[in-house]
Amino acid sequence: MVFMRVSNSTCVTVKQTTQCYNVSVENAKKVNKVSHLEPVTNKCTYVLTAGECYDTTAEVSKVTTKDIHIDSNQNCVALAATQCFGEDAAVTTLPAVHRKADGNCVNLSATECFSGESDGAVAITATNAAKANGTCLTLKENQCVEADAVKDVSASRVKKANSECLTLESGKCWNGTTQTQDALSASAHLHTTTGHCVLLEKDQCYKGEAANDVSDVQARKADGVCVDIKDSECWSGTAAKATSFGEAPLVFKTESTSNCVSVSATQCYNETTEKAATVNANQVRQDDFVCEYKLEDNQC
Fold first, then answer.
1. Model pLDDT for residues 233-247, shown as the tens digit of each residue
2. Has this prediction a pTM greater than 0.90?
3. What is the dihedral of CA 257, 258, 262, 267, to 10 degrees?
4. Residues near 73 by Cβ (< 8 Å), separated by ≥ 6?
5. Which of 20, 92, 146, 150 could serve as 165's disulfide partner, Cβ 3.0–4.6 Å?
6. Domain spans of the chain?
7. How many CB atoms lie within 10 A of CB 179?
C-alpha cells in the first residue's frame, strides 16, 4: 500500500501485515505488540498503558519522565537539557521560555522572571528583578540590577520600576511616579541617598531630604530650600525681615511661602494672589490694608 506524506507529497510504501503507516512521523513502521495495524486504513494505532508513550525511532513504548513527554499523538518527545516540553513539542529554552522541574515549559511575560525556588514565573517587584537570562535576582529595597549584578542605589544611580539601575544625567533627579528624569529646580530637589526627586508644592520647602510645610517660623527661599524665621518675620529673598502693619509701606507675610510682600500707600494686599495690588473702584483697601472687592452683580 502506498501513502503520500502530507509534509512534502512524497510516497511511502507500506508492507501489508508487517508494517503500518505512522501518521506522526509520516513513515512505515513495523507492527509489534505496542504499534498495531488498523486493518481498514493500514495506519498505526498504539496500545499503551497509562504513563507510557511510543518511541517511533526505537519502536518501543517508554515510560514518561521529566525528559520524555507524550504528545497529542501518544508519541514520545525526548528533551535535551536545554529544551522543555511546550506546544506539543520540544522547545529550546530562552530568556522568556524556561524549563520547570517536570520538564514542561513556562513562558514569561515582560513583567515576570523565573524562580527556581518557586519553579515557575513570579512577578518582577522592587525586591525581585530579572536577569538577562530571565531568571530572578533577589534585591533589597535600596538595590537595583545592572548587568546581572546587584548594585546599591545612590544620588546618581536610581532604581526603575522594573528594578533595573539607571545612571542619572547631571542636573537631574528621578521621578518615580512618571519614571522619568526631571530637571532640578526650586520645586524639584535631589534626594542624596536615593537619587529621587523631592517634589515641592507651592506651600512647601526642602529640608532634611524631604518636603516640609511652610509655617509662621519656616519660610521658602527662592531656591525652594527652607529657612527658619521668627513668627513676626517674613523672608525678603535674602534675609528675614520684620513684618509691619503700621504706616505704609507695610510688610505682609504670605501664607503659602512666608515671603515678604511690600505694600505702598496706594496699594492693598490681595490675599488671593498674595501680592500687592493697586487700589481702584473695584478693589478697595480696608483699614488693615487688605484688599476687598467691590463688584456689581454682573462683574467678577
1. 999 999 999 999 877
2. no
3. 70
4. 23, 24
5. 146
6. 1-78, 83-138, 141-199, 212-300
7. 11
